[in-house]
Amino acid sequence: MEKLNHKKLKRLLRSITLSILVGVLSGGISVLFLRSLNWATQTREAHKQVIWLLPIAGLLIGWIYSKFGEHLSRGNNLIIEEVQTPRDIIPFKLAPLIFLTTIVSHLFGASTGREGAVVQLGATLSDRVSKLFNVQIHERKNLLAAGASAAFGSALGAPWAGVLFGLEFIDVDKLHLFAILECLVASFSAYLTTSLLKYSHTQYSLPETAPFQMSIVCYVVIAGIIFGLAARLFILTTKQFNKIQTRLFEYPPYKAFFGGLILAVLFNIKGMSQFSGLGIATIQKAFTEISNFSQPFFKLFFSALSISSGFKGGEFMPLVYIGTTLGSALSLIIPISIKLLAALGFVAVFAGAANTPIACSIMAIELFGPTIAPYAFFCCFTSYLISGKMGIYESQRFTKGKNQKFFSTISFVQRIFINKKVKKT
Predict the structure, then answer these.
(1) Is-contact 121 26, C-beta < 8 A?
(2) Domain limits of the chain?
(3) Distance between CA atoms of 130 and 135, rounded to whole angstroms?
(4) Which helix (H) or strand (E) covers residue 357, if one does?
(5) What would the pLDDT profile of 99-141 be if each residue is shown by its tens digit?
(6) Which of 1.10.3080.10, 3.40.30.10, 3.40.640.10, 3.40.190.10 is the CATH number of 2-196?
(7) pLDDT attached to residue 404
(8) Considering only CA atoms, which of 115, 124, 117, 161 is closest in space to residue 143?
(9) 20 to 30 A Cα–Cα from 284, which one of 66, 133, 169, 418?
(10) Residue 46, H or E segment
């Protein structure tokens, strides 16, 4: 018995130690990457004419991936597949490839994100740790999920959301807590690392939330339906653009070149350059000034074209931009405060597109305060249910109906909170 307990303790300490290492590495690379991305954005803003070089940047990115590993362009899908069915260690070259190509994409104005790239960086580094310490298959799966958790949480400044994202984006129907310890330790280690390195995360306005009311929940569900449809439109548009471009150009670098050429021309039309890059200033502005309904749709078009052409960075920030500006615009017709609708759009469109409603609900609480919790939960799950059996991550598994996760989550929350109240009385 003592030997058995000793082995368990040894395994536990090993998991914690490796998870801390994964968290520190992920947090460090996140800071380096985000600061590099800030430099790229500032450089582009100071020299707007560089947007004309976007087709050359696309040609370069396409050539790099076709030369050094076309399968690596699958990005987060590759990570999901390795967690689901472990085969090979993720090649370390994915890290410098995604780092470099994302910086190049943003330097020349592609309408892509950053968190998707950070997740790939974190997972790649965690797989290096797995190889270095010769871990078993189940340990490797756990560390891959932990790397994704650490990177996502540290990039956003939302470690609890990071914990759940690393688990939730693997499978759609149910939240599997197979690596909860590793994800928890890694995500908070990464967050602490970014704090020690004095990286300042983007700040957003806190929504003004009234006491919980069912009438507001009804409006929130309506907004969630619209956010889910926006997520679905983004996914379908990106897939359709990719089909058309693949049919026209068999050689990937040509696809990126011509996609970049179209983007460069359109971005130079008056007023269109605001849809290049991350668009963080527009996202922040949407919390206090009502957005135009054209903004989320233009961003959707430009982001879908950028991503389908092969530009790197991911979908998170484009979906946040779409959701926040759409929520802000909806305040004209839905009787809820602009800040609350913008905050709900911030998390709900991504929840629907990435099939991660629980992580996004937690993200809302971390970024906007605990009073948003019930509204975020209903809005994110509504968006998730409406977006259908599709997502930005093609490798996610769909085995049961999406409503299975909703009811299992309700049951879980009920067991924790309602049963506690019963015991107290």
Answers:
(1) yes
(2) 2-196, 214-413
(3) 5
(4) helix 357-368
(5) 999 999 999 999 999 999 999 999 999 999 998 998 888 889 9
(6) 1.10.3080.10
(7) 64
(8) 124
(9) 169
(10) helix 2-46
